[in-house]
Amino acid sequence: MASFDFFRDKLTEWNHNDLIQRFEDEEIDEEGFLSLEETDLMKLIPKAGPRCRFRKKHNKYLKKRQQHNDDMNIQEATSLSASIKDSMCSSGNVTGEMVSQESCQKAIIKPRNQTPKRSETKRSIDKRFGTLGESVPTTDISVVGETVYDQSEPSTSKIRPLQVNIPGKRKSDETYANKQTKKRQPGAAVGITERFEIETKTEVKKIMQRVESKLDDLPSTKLIDFLRGKIQKLEKDKKEIVGVFGKTGAGKSFLINTILGETKLLPSGNQGACTSVMIQVEANMTDSDSKYIAEIEFITEKEWKEELWSIFSDISYKDRNDEDQERDDDDDEKISALYGKDGSGATLEELMDRKHFREIPEFRLSVKKIFLCDTAEELSEKITCYTRSDTQSDTFKRQYWPLVKCITIKVPNSKDLLEHVVLVDLPGNGDCNKSRDEMWKSFVGNCSAVWIVSDIARATSEKESWEILDSTVSLFGPGGECRSISFICTKTDDIEENNQKADARTCILRRNETTKKQVRDKFNKQKEMKKHFSGGKDFLQVFTVSSKEYQKEKHLPQEETEIPKLQEFLRNLNDRRTRSSDYVSGAYGILSLIQGAKSSDTTDSKEEVCQVLEQRLKDEIKSIGQTMDEAYETFERCLSEGVRQSEESCEKLMNKVIAPRGKKGSGYHKVVKTLCKNGGVYKPKGKRERRMEINLNDSLASCMIKLIDEEFKRYFPNEGKRGPIREQIDTFTLDTNSLFGKNPKVSLHLIFLKTEETELKTKLICDLREKKKKIYCTLTESIKDSMRQCYIRASEHTGKDSLKRMKDELHHHMKNNNIFQKAKEDMLGCLINLKEHIVMQLKCKLQESMDLSLKTSNRSFFPDDVTVEYNKMKMCYEKLMGSSSTVQFTPRLDLHTKTTTFESQSGNGRKRVQVSTSITMLNPEIVKELTTHNRNPTYRLQCPKAGLFQCSSTELVFLMEGKGDVIYMMTQWDSSLLGSMTPAGPLFSIDCPEQSVRQLHLPHCMCDEKDDNLSVAHVTDGNMEIVQPLKTTATHVIVNITHLSLFGLIRNWFSFISVRSQVLLFLRPQGNRPQKRILNVILLPKNVPLCEVEHQQKGSTFIQTISNCTLSPRGKYGLCCELVPNSSTKPKSGQFDYDYSPNFHPTFQVFLDCMSGIENIRLSLLDRGSNDQRVWECLIPTDFEPPQINLINPNPGAEPELNPLLGAAFVDKYMADLIQKVPIPMGIADRLFAENMIQQEMYTTIRSAKTSQDQMRLMLDAVRSGGTVKYAFYKALINHYPYVVRDLGKIKLLLSPVSHLVEHGACNDKIVGSIPRSTHT
């Protein structure tokens, strides 16, 4: 019972009483409560909001619970050397045999107080490796203890992998039964070294968890957020992908099983059965790391319906004269696999009947199906029907592979090979299904290595393997990141049996060598294929393997089967050693930053070092910029020639695709028709033969691609030489090592900067790989985009001579739209973007790091002491790097904090930016897609450079250190945080993606700028921090900021000092009676933005008049209306509430029953507390315009009230234009989904579409049914993109609130409404 009381108490403490009954129903005790995983939480707490709040509290509780254990475990870092020494000394000589379990046990139970000295450990390692005939590489130790190597890949790791050849024998007489679950067991020395590194990383993780726990208890600031982000990014999750291609029956599945030491993981071996879906295999890194897991991802129900419709269309096509139109066995196989005899002669509706999918409800719900199994054999049996196409089975058993998009298999105990690597079993040429094909292309483009698997008997003669290579080479070559190709010849044991075993072995090895030479020779003859690569050393590797021999050792020892070579290939790609070293180095840099800031008070030294580094940064960036400019000029020349050649030969290029020789016009009709429907691409179906896809866009771009290929390969190689741009990144350095000797007191800061520099260079190289793929594809994608409308028009041609009309349409559009020039400009634009990205990343990231480490006030940096953590981290780092650091740290208690200025207190530190003291007024735009509620518009102010910029709508002023967009909105004050304080201005939620805001000027309404009651409230994560202003002017309160969140002005609640105020007038009709009107009179403080109020006054006309007055908070006032008979005012008296809520209601309402013959209205505001003294009055002419009726939205700021029939007609008429003109369709989709106009499946499909045009096409397909769906779409379209409707329908819309105020002069530089103006421009 006490076990259940535990979770009840916790849920009550966390304000989750509503969950107690649900937890009791699920019989969750204390152990279950502590072991809750994400999948459990999704079932227990379906709603996302409560689940997120519970998860946050649950995680925090678990961290605190583990605190004591972490304190104990962290001490074990000091005992690692003892473990290494004991392990290494447990045997006198090292052979190929494994280290005995007894030795390992001795290393583990060795008393921890016998830690050897570093020199002893090093001598032990040297001696150990000396017995192997290998020596530890000589290292160059710098003053900071770094081991320097010339590495092609930048890495925070300074350890070169030890090249140790370990001789030894394999026990060939060991039976297959004893080895079927055998995993890789490293040699003794390598295994001990690797285990040491992994254990070190584990200890370092515990240290960083302790530091992160301290950060969690601190309020959010820019510095603290920076540290949290750095810790979270330590564990890089990008994995290397190995794409495995091969013909059916080549033995891919069997090969993968053998490499992983599994016998029955991937289904394989049946005659007539083949893998039919993409399968990715990776290490199980989940909490259930001892389980075999399969995650099955399905295509959507809509996609399957479209695929069936396509199959039926092919069947019904009557033209039998063209060979391309014969019935494809692939289609029949899909139908028979899923439906059996029920599929024969069934209609589309019958095949989509839910009864066929009862066993896979996940398919209809668009969620993954997950299997967790204890053994590989059990998992294999469960997933067979989702992976295999079995045509030889005598009995029908429903197979679901036609519905599968991809399967992910997570294998336990495989971190040695697959912790950072994913093996993907891929079909050779994509898929006719769009989503599967996109995923296939994504996998191919991201492959770091490609394996082509072929039966050794047909390695050179079989066309399919080489056709796969030829058809995909552009995707994983220049359009991808493949760094090596491996041709794997399988079934080397398949030979004629000889009487003597030695003869069989000799025969196998002889054929292996011959085949390797033949494959290399054939590859070298593939000139078109080879031109995509730089031809680096070992780019093409040939392996001759036998999975059976590896398991049984009948003719060959395991080493000669070459399976161990493939394992080593994966192990090198996995590179756990470098990843561990990167993690430790990054963590050491973070703690060096914290400790250095707390221990250093040498301001002059910091400034001197910072100036040197800033100048070096500037010089290095200039050098990179010059290289990028050279690349731009080179490609500009190539592309200009490509445009000329393309324009001259475009007719030939197009006819090569749409009118090839030997194809009859009528018979080729369907190919051209399908090509136009699919954006210029025709992908043949069926297994009759491997046919290449037909791509008109590739053909049109071929001249330009051919001319840039050599230069592209030179500037962006995947393998071999690094290329000029990559080389510039590699050689980029701030050379912090040279500053250690002269500036020992800032050595820890310099260590941090060194790790930051290395980490950034690694990231930029990854970015370079990703962006170069997009650059290479730009030409084809640009031409596809330019031809899109033409493809649509051509596909709509039907009837007699439709083929000719389609061709004419394509030719005419190509000639008259400068598609080649546009493609050139698009590619050059991508090169410019690449340069800007690299330069800005180096400039901003490193400048930020310098500011944080060398310009931030020490004492305010990190209040908690991390000396213990730093010293332990330093010890782990030094042991891992194999050398001692000369940087010594002595804790200092007397810390000196210099006087803070704006520059030193900013998040980016003292950036010497010269800005003008004058303020530039800018008009903001309302960001519709970011507006969370129609009463709370979100503004974007685009600041073009460094300086002071004021928003004309809200009067906010931002001091910018550089170019940036500031995004902000008014939000609700939380009264529970205010206590005895009260708002003195609106609460603004402010953000700037570029983090370039350094100072904030909040408008106030105090009559006396010397009023010391004003403070700035900074609200983060439900907590309010009171910040004292830097300065208060006559109009604004100025405050320096470290990071952006919620800011607003507050003052003492008991203060009754008068404030500058405004009287705002809005006129609206009384219902349907145009002669009778209501004048809303709103009393507000002067710093409430007028645009916010006007946004809420639905269907009212704002009356410009003198609005200024001075009012007392919570004072009583009355309104007097003169010169209008039969008018009435309610209420007689009203209180000035000093209101800053997002909702602004009228203080008074004047009911005007008849205004005929009346020229003016006189209004007066009377102070009831001062004998009705007039504090404000105005004379309003009655010739003002009545509220305008907007054809689209009669109530500005309100939901559109539209004619459903007109809206539907508009959508139907301009459907094609909307596809091209709506820039971000997801805002409309969000609205439709929120109103239940589209289902979850459709919403997910729209969201997953890659381009905005595809998203709009899907959305328009969903609303074609008309009715309320189309009406809702039209309303959402107007709400998000009124200018699109205006431009298409030529309908004059009312301007948005901000632009309306700007156009009519309602927003003044200083005071809104101070000068009477007309309501017309």
Which terms would index this structure?
globular, eight-stranded antiparallel sheet, 15% strand, disordered C terminus, single chain, 45 helices, alpha+beta, 1321 residues
Explain how this protein is built.
With 1321 residues, the chain is α+β, with helices and mostly antiparallel strands. It is built from 45 helices and 37 strands. The strands form seven sheets. A nine-stranded mixed β-sheet has the order 5-4-7-3-8-1-9-10-11, with helices on both faces. Strands 15, 16, 19, 20, 21, 23, 24 and 27 form an eight-stranded antiparallel β-sheet that branches. A six-stranded mixed β-sheet has the order 14-17-18-22-26-25, with no helix packed on it. Strand 23 (1015-1020) and strand 24 (1023-1027) form a beta hairpin. Helix 7 (80-89) runs antiparallel to helix 11 and helix 11 (188-216) runs antiparallel to helix 12.
Mean pLDDT: 75
Coarse structural class: alpha+beta
Distance between the termini: 77 Å
Poorly predicted sequence stretches spanning 5 or more consecutive residues: 70-190, 318-326, 883-912, 1187-1202, 1290-1321
What share of the residues lie within helices? Answer: 40-55%
Describe the SSE topology.
Elements: H1 2-13, H2 20-25, H3 30-34, H4 38-44, H5 48-65, H6 67-74, H7 80-89, H8 101-109, H9 118-130, H10 176-179, H11 188-216, H12 222-232, E1 240-246, H13 252-259, E2 273-275, E3 278-283, E4 292-298, H14 301-316, H15 329-339, H16 348-351, H17 361-365, E5 369-373, H18 376-387, E6 388-390, E7 404-411, H19 415-418, E8 421-425, H20 434-445, E9 447-455, H21 463-476, E10 484-490, H22 501-525, H23 527-530, E11 540-544, H24 547-552, H25 563-574, H26 576-599, H27 603-658, H28 669-677, E12 681-682, E13 694-695, H29 696-715, H30 724-731, H31 747-795, H32 802-815, H33 819-854, H34 867-881, H35 902-905, E14 919-922, E15 925-926, E16 939-943, E17 947-951, E18 957-960, E19 964-971, H36 975-978, E20 981-983, E21 987-991, E22 997-1003, E23 1015-1020, E24 1023-1027, E25 1031-1032, E26 1036-1040, E27 1046-1052, E28 1059-1070, E29 1073-1085, H37 1090-1096, E30 1101-1103, E31 1108-1111, E32 1116-1122, E33 1127-1130, E34 1134-1135, E35 1148-1152, E36 1160-1167, E37 1173-1181, H38 1204-1213, H39 1215-1221, H40 1226-1234, H41 1240-1248, H42 1252-1263, H43 1267-1280, ...
Parallel strand pairs: 1-8, 1-9, 3-7, 9-10, 10-11, 14-17
Antiparallel strand pairs: 2-6, 3-8, 4-5, 4-7, 12-13, 15-16, 16-19, 17-18, 18-22, 19-21, 20-27, 21-27, 22-26, 23-24, 23-27, 25-26, 28-29, 28-30, 28-31, 29-35, 32-34, 32-36, 33-35, 36-37
Helix pairs in contact: 6-11, 7-8, 7-9, 7-11, 11-12, 11-26, 11-34, 26-31, 26-34, 27-29, 27-30, 27-32, 27-33, 28-31, 29-31, 31-32, 31-33, 38-43, 39-42, 40-41, 40-43, 41-42, 43-44
Organism: Hucho hucho
Pfam family, one: CARD
Domain FIIND: 917-1194
